[in-house]
User: Fold these one by one.
Assistant:
Number 1:
Amino acid sequence: MSNMQIELPKDAFSRVNTSSKESELITRPGITFWADARRRLMKNKVAMLGLAIIIIITMLAIFAPVFSEYTYTKQDLANTNAPPSREHPFGTDSHGRDLWVRVWVGARVSLAVGIFGSIIPGLIGIVIGGISGYFGGKVDMIIMRFIDIVMCVPNMIYIILITIYIGTGPAALVVAFALTGWMGTARSVRGMILQLKEQEFVLASRTLGASPANLIFQHLIPNTLGIVVVSMTMGVPSAIFQEAFLSFIGLGIQPPVPSWGQLANLGISVFRIYPSQLLIPAALISITMLSFNLFGDGLRDALDPKLRM
Amino acid sequence: MAKYIFKRLIISIITIWLLATVSFFLLRALPGNPFQTEKLLTVEMQERMMAYYGLDRPLLEQYFTYMKNLLNGNMGYSLKYTNRTVNSIIASTFPISADLGLRSLAVALPIGLALGVASARKRGKAIDYICVVVAVIGVSIPSFIMGSFLQYAFAIKLKILPVSQWETTAHTVLPTVALALSLMATLTRVMRASMLEVVMQDYIKTARAKGLSEGRIVWSHQIRNALIPVLTMLGPMVTSVLMGTFVIERIFAIPGLGQHFVNSITGLDYTMTMGLTIFYGTFMVFANFLVDIAYGIVDPRIRITK
């Protein structure tokens, strides 16, 4: 310990002119939760890269077939299994169909099934999970036991059953995904609603006379939206995968309409001789799933307040 | 504990009964009959086949017959594999699928969890980025693509491993790796996220403050607590892996259970689909039950017996 004492003269300090009113003043504009999340998402380079790739693939899916002289069914039997060239950027298949057009028409199908096959079950899950969590008691028990039972069987069995019943095709697949895919979301939404409904703002709203529907849709569900949006984004790659898988085993999209899974399935039969016919759809499936996963990861980080530091 | 197990057992039996009932009537609601797909059979012959298997009786009578047989553990004859019972088909193909599944899990579980832990502990460092990238690529490449490429690279080009079939240990390598990669990637992601959550908890600071060694902190405080979400996932994961995966089995020509899941439904093989559904469901219920018990062991705060 030193005995040295620092001399601090009184006139070295001066009073900062503050009043209690000014210190309470908000100097910066308030930022909403979503604006904050967007800002953090924009800073995440990997997520933005994922988003950029998704946009490029979507644009190509929309416009590439329009600006090509070929159609996805037009056969040219004199020019089958051609390697990639200036005329056919991805080559041709065993019927001489232009693979560039087929791949991008397939992208329309795969992306549409992937996106709607994730959003629609997500929405159903929100509604059912919301009802189950809010009302609790018997309703909750019946819905949860139902989910428990249905989840005991692999999804694939239901999807195949439904496609046998209502036929195959992009719309049928989306219906099948919608009927089988809502349970995970319903469970997690229910869990969150159970926590949220005990909080004060719900009590306040109820005291002010809000109806159950109003409470569920105005107060409870918006608070669960962050996690649901993330799970929907993460659901897109798995829906794309399921479509690819079903088409790959011949149960999904039926020829001549192409999808990525089906193109991969056709490609695998000639894989050893013409590897590019499998490589291209396989690479596109993987890149798209990767981009959605990267974007979903970024979105989760942006929406999770616990990760703020 | 005994009371809890008893209660769970009752709930499980009710679950499986409901499952069997729902799938029974759902399957019968499908258009067509099992013998329609074989084009050689005339309508008259189809009807005789239906009568032979008792499928022309009233639906409720069939249901009660099926349930009675099911109680005796008899799931009937397959409608597609002549003279083979569903039990014998499951008994001969399940061990193969389970073998492949166990091998993949034995590879994926330790590596996946280790990568997850390493990644979370070195958050933001090079090793974290490598693990995250490997994991996200692993979950983004569908198994049928991974399987085809492994087969092409190692069996066709390099010729160091057999292309397909299920005979020697060398035959098991490629399918095991193809299956294990995606499992590993999923486990790494879940374990990393869970570890990151745990590392920030106050009790980790307490553990450090009271002077525990880093090894103790990691093993008995962080990993143990981080395992809970992994356990939740493990029930369905182990079930689906042991029950066989259609694509891997098809690519590598493995005579496992996975193919029957798809083939029996598309062929409207009622008894086979029913048998597989019930088998899968029972397995899943049992796996989830074990997971619930494991919760209590990993985290004593979770008391399953209230």
Number 2:
Amino acid sequence: MKLPDLTELALRNLRESLLRNSLTTVGISVGVASLVAMLSLGIGLQQMASRRLVKSGLFDTIIVSSRREMRGMGREEERNGPIPGQSRILDEAARLEIEQMPTVSEAYPDIRFATELRFEDKPHLTTVSALPQSAKGNDSFDGMQGLFFSSDTAPEAILQKSFAEELLGKTPPLGAPEPNVADLAKPLLGKELTMRYAQRAASSPAQATQGNDSGSNASGDFAGVSYSVVSREQKLKIMGVSDLDPESMRGPTRAKVFLPLKLAENLHVMQPTDLRELSRDNDQPVYSSISVRVKNPAQIQVVEDAIKKMGFTTFSIADASRGLRQFFGVLYAFLGIFGSLALMVASIGIVNTLVMAILERRREIGIMKAIGASDADVKKLFFAEAGAMGILGGMLGVVLGWAIGQLINFGTNIYLKRQSLPPEHFWAVPWWLVGFGIGFAFVVSLVSGLYPAGRAARLDPVQALRYE
Amino acid sequence: MMTIAPIVSASTTLAIRSEDVCRHYRMGDTIIRAVDGVSLDVPAGEFVALLGSSGSGKSSMLNLIAGLDTPTTGRVIVQNRDLAKLSREELAKYRLCVVGMVFQSFNLIASMTLIENVELPLRFAEVDRGQRASIAREALEQVGLKARLNHRPSELSGGEQQRAALARALINRPKLLLADEPTGNLDSHTGTEIMNMLRGFNQQLGMTVVMVTHERALAERYAQRMVFLADGKVVDDRPNSLALEAQP
């Protein structure tokens, strides 16, 4: 029998026992809804976690440094490959080469230095680092008081909460509750900080002996090349106070004060690499490390490998993201198993419905066989009925699962709003899940139809025709 | 559409040959000998009546010829093929292409309209939808049910249902028409109508008809040959001169 005829007959037969078949289909749809709801919750949670992690900048960032930075550390990277002292220098040309990779969104130098900041004539020693404008979207600045930098060159600063506490003399004793960031920001926003720093000046010996506005100079001569270090001051306007720690991944070297990237570059603050690369003829800036942000966290390994091939050392926390994927894989499996249980119960309903149909339609099967239906025709007809119930139940179940998800999402967001928390979308039904839900229901229905269809096909036509 | 092989080869005019056919059933410790050594030759185009009382084995014999059942021993040969040697799939094809069946209780599918019932064998033969509908409509017109195409069997009289069953049996143009008590549930007037149709198909289309009945008068009026069965055995087999004389 041709497929359209089979489908038509199957749907006709399903319509004949509308109530019973509808109830079976509803049973399948509840099973599919449960499966879809469970999996969409898992997917939604993973997407939420991914969004958070991507926003944190941890999972799309690679820290690149020159192998020269590892001399004497005895790390695996040092032991393998070229001698660190002879390896490639991480200069502006290398930064541009990395930035031009198709999957890289930006590559910027890590400018980081310890310096003195004066606030209301009191000196405070801390680490300062530079941030690009793209860091504005970093979720470490969620809940920040004040504003992000107005431009990449503005003489502005953002303080980390703990440094704000230090400036105001409000550092809480160990174990005491931390002060509110809004209370800390109020007396600081718009105020001025004075940063004293060591600037590497032009390298001619004549210039090195000249005075400057700060009046404090130092000069030196290494291998016939001269350099000057000039003490300078930079006024900075406090634009914001960050509640979270944007550099938590850097551990003890993390900065407490942040400057716009271009401003920091233009200050030419003395960096450790300056002394090391003095003998170079090229006057391009040399960096101790650069941060590379990839467009998609999934591509991080590819970019890392490409950078390693250039002769640099890389570091990212992609391994942690792999662990996260593994965790969500296990979560999917568990949610899928629990979600499938209802579908398994529904499959028993299909078997029951079809076995009942065989009993009721015993004579009909006999007639069909008497007028020329083969065993395969009868089997296919019952399969088609099971499959039709599966597809209908699957479609209904996906809609039901989606509706349940929307409802729970809506209810949870009302709760989050009442708790003054931002709304979240932690329920996602991707297209593949729609297809999977319907397909899985179809397959389960066909498997459930195996026994009844086989039984119907094996019916003895003579016995079936005698059945009243 | 499946091809229907000729029922009679060039070398023979026999439509059906049964050779010492037995069909025994086991009921507990008892063996029921429904058909017990029946040998029968039916030439192509003959109208044969199988007569006998209830339990004589005539319906069992018809089921064996129809390929609905297989003999315990012996052979049923139709179209030079031993039905016992055919697979289930081949038997289904045989029932679809070679045999048309009419039953006492009409055996129309209640949930289908008349046209759907009639075109059902064509679905199994994988005939295209458009062609199927026109063939079924034509068959129903031939049996006078043009106005009842979309009626369900429950909306029709017994005679109309049997005419629809006849249309269904003939839809694949079989060479062999098997009728099991075709007038059993009909009044005499309608029964006569159906029997005239059967005789018409037999005479006009050259179709071999095997009819099971317990009404001797009916057999005498229409069948060219009467085979009497009792306890599963052939007890008499003779030509029916009355029917032969009545032929036009």
